[in-house]
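Weekly structure sync, notes
Attendees: PL (lead), two postdocs, one rotation student
Agenda item 3: pending single-chain targets
PL asked that the sequence for the first pending target be pasted directly into the notes so everyone works from the same version. It is reproduced below exactly as submitted, 220 residues in total.
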Amino acid sequence: MNTDIVARQHAPEGPVRFALAPPRILALAFAAAALIVGSFFLPWWRFWLYAPQYPKGLSLIISLTGMGGDVREIDLLNHYIGMKHLADAAPLERQYAGLGVALVAVLVVALAALPVRRLRRLAAVPALALPIVFLADSFYWLYTFGHALDPKAPLHIPAFTPQMFGNGQIGQFETFAQPAIGFWVALAGVACAVAASLIPDGKDAKHDKHDEHEKKEEAS
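Predicted structure, written out during the meeting:
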């Protein structure tokens, strides 16, 4: 074995320094966190209901902490078909939404800042989880409300699940639903987090070549 390699292997190491990912990766991570936090203050979904007695339609605006729009009128209509009040939906989710969003933002930055690229790829996981959990949870509550109708209600309609995308029908009402600005802002944050987790920092290739060179020297 080459003596200079042995010397290098047993040479005392210098002071350990905490390294961070390159600035461009950190910039993407902070941009992702800012977009994700910003989405918390914006509406994530919108629903519209149309019927002859409501020619202008009724709107329902969904955010991570509650609902807005024509909530009172929609609750009154829901009462006639035996549906629960909208305020009864997702109580825990709305209560802890702020904490969850903050945790996601912190995890994205912390994981993206890691100097090891393999670990840095984990930064995309919490960012992707946020919109996926929102969609899954929203579908759960839409299904639950539409399938837990009070049998003693004045009007009886078959169980249903409101459409989350595009056109739908609930009784005599036509509905339309689509993502709102907050959801798209969150997706922009996801895109930044994915980019931060995948973009090469220029150091990995150098380290790989260095390791290959040392292996060749050891073999000789």
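Discussion points:
- Residues 124-146 form the longest helix (23 residues).
- The longest strand covers residues 54-62.
Action: rotation student to compare against the earlier draft before next sync.
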